Every structure is written in C-alpha cells, then in structure tokens.
C-alpha cells in the first residue's frame, strides 16, 4: 500500500485529490490543510509520498519541503500546484523534491508522478523542461574566510523581461499590460527574482542584477 499525505490549505482540493487517488487499489490518502501540522502528522504515521501545495499560509511548499527533507531525507515530496512553477524552479530543485505536478493534471498523470517519485525518477512537466535553457551569470563571491567560490544566478526569459521592465520604472500593473500577463503572475515572478538574488526590494534587485550583468545599465 502506498501511503500519501496531501498538504493543501484548500480542503476541497485536498479532498477531491484524495477521492481521485483512492480509486487506485494500492493508494491510501490522508489530507491536512495546516502546513504547520505536517511534522506532527509524519510523527504519527509513516508516509511514502507527500503532495505539497506551493502557496500556503504558515509554511509554503518550498519551506516545508526543505524542513521535511532535513528530518526525513528519504521522503518523496511532490509539489502540487496550479501556479506557474518556472519562476521558482531553482528554489524547488534546491529543496531536493521529487517532482512537480499540476493541479490540472489528469488522474493518470498524477498516479504516474507518484509512481515515478517512488522509483527515484524526477517528474518535470514538458513546458517547464523546455524552459531549462536559461541565462547563467557567474560571478566570484568571496566568503568570510577569504576563499572564492563561483556563484551562479539563473534567470529565465520571463524573469529577464520583467527585470528589464522594472528597470524602466514601470509598476507591476503596467508590466503586466506590457508583457500580456496577469499582475499576480508578475508579482510571483518578482518574488522568485528577489529570492534568487537574495534581495528584498525592486531597487536592490536592480542593483544586484546590474552588478551581475543580468541587465544593462540605463
């Protein structure tokens, strides 16, 4: 029996996915909506696979995955979300997860993703796989003990486009209009850029991006 735990702050989504998966004879599914209760649930019962929503209050999917993998390094973790994953790809990979599954995936795709994770195979949607050709900017970063290490910052085409729009002084609303995307998508992408560059504001992001040669000086 494959024991699965779904962590999603939308109970209807979790319950619907549970119903879908338990149509399989070898799958047993539990659902919780509070990400902060995940470790307690794992202590109470052994699971083979976790399906984590990406955006949740308390702990988001990335933070939760890192926490779980520290305590349970062999746990198979899949990010289960309806949002675009491309802006968070590097962070998700660094979280040591087993793959990504869209909430629009069919039952067959979801079951396949779980089975692949159990076989130590990484599941990546085709549209995301095609975006892996991204710009690499490498700089030398000096550590506190004086040693130098290579620091790689990767931005995909969407992130480059949004950063360039930010450098022109456009608001998120105007960027969304200019690039024909939703304002929320712009905001999520900017959050991903901030995380990659380890900054907290648009101004800091522009300064860091120019320093790394990711965008041209104005």
From TrEMBL:
One of its GO terms (biological process) is regulation of DNA-templated transcription. One of its GO terms (cellular component) is cytoplasm. Keywords: DNA-binding, Phosphoprotein, Transcription, Transcription regulation. The lineage of its organism: Bacteria, Bacillati, Bacillota, Bacilli, Bacillales. It holds the Pfam family Response_reg. GO terms for molecular function: DNA binding. Residues 148-213 form the HTH luxR-type domain. Its main location: cytoplasm. It comes from Pontibacillus yanchengensis Y32. This is LuxR family transcriptional regulator. InterPro entries: CheY-like_superfamily, NreC/VraR/RcsB-like_REC, Sig_transdc_resp-reg_C-effctor, Sig_transdc_resp-reg_receiver, Tscrpt_reg_LuxR_C, WalR-like. It is found in: Cytoplasm. The modification 4-aspartylphosphate is found at residue 53.
